[in-house]
Amino acid sequence: MQSFYFLGIVLASYLASAFYDPALAFASLKFTSNLLIKILPILLLVFVVMFIFNFFVTPEMITKNLAKSSGTRRWLIAIGGGIISTGPIYLWYPLLRELKKGGVSDGFVAAFLYSRAIKPFLFPVMIFYFGWAYTFTLTFVMILMSFGEGVIIDRLNLKTAK
Amino acid sequence: MKNSKILTAAQKSTRAILNSLPILLGVVLLVGLINNLVPTSFYTNLFSQNLFLDSVIGSALGSILVGNPITSYVLGGEMLQQGVSLVAVTAFLVAWVTVGLVQFPAEAILLGRRFAAWRNALSFLFSIFVALTVAALLSFF
């Protein structure tokens, strides 16, 4: 609902600018329509990739594998699971809490949450704006940082409530 | 069984796209308005052209703002067009998706306050480091 409030406020700003400065509103709409024409086909591609991920991966599948695995395999599942996970982050908190209760360390949870920032289904948009080299480099560095953050969080030994 | 899996995946993907559409449309409209309203000099004044400071400002902006990552790509792409450095834009993009000030209370309640505080603080610092590293690596391409 909040998203519609935001859109409403923006549309109201357009109405106000159309009233006071029609040229500004027209130029802004022209810019917006050009941008939308560029983005919409990419959004379609995003839907297709998202569908494929949602078809093959479920939250339960990731959490089950994370709980069962250990060592390097667990790191790979935490980071890989974060990358392929979809949906709002707060939906994952209860599942991660259960994992922590089951003995999964804070570091794996942190690595999972950090690697969620890598969104393969949004690669088409990122490539459109920033190019292949940038998308590849950023993804590579962020995978390393997921591991780094996990290791640091584990070393801090936070003793958070399980 | 397979049909219901296809249906669930389609519904989930459609919902995700539809949920982000009002925000995305709002952001694109806003970008159009700001693009014509705010002079380019505003961005060059906000960002100092000092790589480290720019990455801190980018990270701070990305930490405060929330929304679908696609929104940050649109904003980041336009910032880049306005002459903002790649380091600042990268810090902004990374902090947007890794630092969650708005989700902090939920994270703190469900995963522990110390965990949430440390994770977000580290993610903020990492967004600066990632931005500087990516810019440095890209200079070799």
Would you give an account of this structure?
- The complex is a heterodimer of chains A (162) and B (141).
- In chain A, helix 7 (123-130) crosses helix 8 (132-156).
- Chain A has 162 residues and is an all-alpha fold.
- The two termini of chain A are 34 Å apart.
- The radius of gyration of chain A is 21 Å and the shape is elongated.
- Chain A contains eight helices and no strands.
- Chain B has one domain (2-140).
- The longest helix of chain B has 36 residues, at 2-37.
- The N and C termini of chain B lie far apart (48 Å).
- With 141 residues, chain B is an all-alpha fold.
- Helix content of chain B is 83%, strand content 0%.
- Chains A and B meet through helix 1, helix 2, helix 5, helix 6 and helix 7 of A and helix 1, helix 4, helix 5, helix 6 and helix 7 of B.
Largest sheet of chain A: none
Biggest β-sheet of chain B, characterized?
none
Distance between the termini of chain B: 48 Å
Straight-line N-to-C gap of chain A: 34 Å
Overall average residue pLDDT of chain A: 85
H-E order of chain B:
HHHHHHH
| Portion in helices of chain B | over 70%
Structure classification of chain B:
mainly alpha
Q: Which ranges of chain A are low-confidence, i.e. pLDDT below 50, for 5 or more consecutive residues?
A: none
Estimate the mean pLDDT confidence of chain B: 86
Q: What's the assembly state of these chains?
A: heterodimer
Rg of chain A, rounded, reads 21 Å
SSE pattern of chain A: HHHHHHHH
Say how many strands of chain B there are: 0
Lay out the secondary structure.
The complex is a heterodimer of chains A (162) and B (141).
Chain A: H1 2-20, H2 22-56, H3 59-68, H4 71-84, H5 93-101, H6 106-115, H7 123-130, H8 132-156
Helix pairs in contact in A: 1-2, 2-7, 3-4, 4-6, 6-8, 7-8
Chain B: H1 2-37, H2 40-46, H3 51-64, H4 69-81, H5 86-98, H6 104-111, H7 113-138
